[in-house]
Every structure is written in C-alpha cells, then in structure tokens.
Amino acid sequence: MTLNDFKEELKNWNLTKYKAINFSIGILALLIYELVGLPIYRPSIYKNKINDFHIADTLGNTFGTFTTIFFLIAILSNDTSKGNYLIKLVSMPEIG
Predict the structure, then answer these.
(1) Which band of pLDDT confidence, cut at 50, 70 and 90, is reported for residue 94?
(2) Which among 5, 1, 22, 41 is positioned nearest to 80, based on CA atoms?
(3) What share of the chain is helix, strand, coil (3-state, %, to 5)?
(4) Quick one: angle between helices 17-32 and 55-76, nearest 10?
(5) CA-angle at 78, arms to 71 and 16, nearest 5°
(6) How does pLDDT run across 18-67, given as a tens digit for each residue?
C-alpha cells in the first residue's frame, strides 16, 4: 500500500458491514481489558500471589495489539484481502 493508495482509500471511505464488524471487535477487546482485566483480573492475581505466567502483566499489550489491528482494518480496508494482509503484517512479528 503506497501513500497514494492510502489517500485514495480515505477519499472513498464508507462504512461497510466488514468495517463495522472489525471496529466492534476492536472496541470489545478494549472494553474487556478496561472493564475486566485492569480492575478485576490483575489485582486478584497480585493479591493472591498466583503465578499466571505474567498474563496479568502483559494483558494490556495483548489486548492493545488486538484493538490496534482491528481499528486499522476498520479504517483502512474495504475488502477482506487487505484486512487479512494487515493482520498478517502486524501479527507475524508477535508470533515469530
């Protein structure tokens, strides 16, 4: 995707079902972290001294990555091929 492709994409931006679904997934990931992970899960793990393999410590990064990926898909892609490309582009460094 070049800068001209990005400008063209923004000129022709419209809300589609695909974009709405991806935006909803991003919002859901953000809400799970902010309403469950941060105030409930992390304090209970720390209070009870449970070894959860640092999930409580990295929960923000994990759900933040999900949120960012799906927000970018909702903003930048009109079809599933671009969305799948963005998922692969962002998630491969995390996996590898």
Answers:
(1) low
(2) 22
(3) 80, 0, 20
(4) 160
(5) 80
(6) 889 999 999 999 999 999 989 999 999 999 999 999 898 988 888 888 89
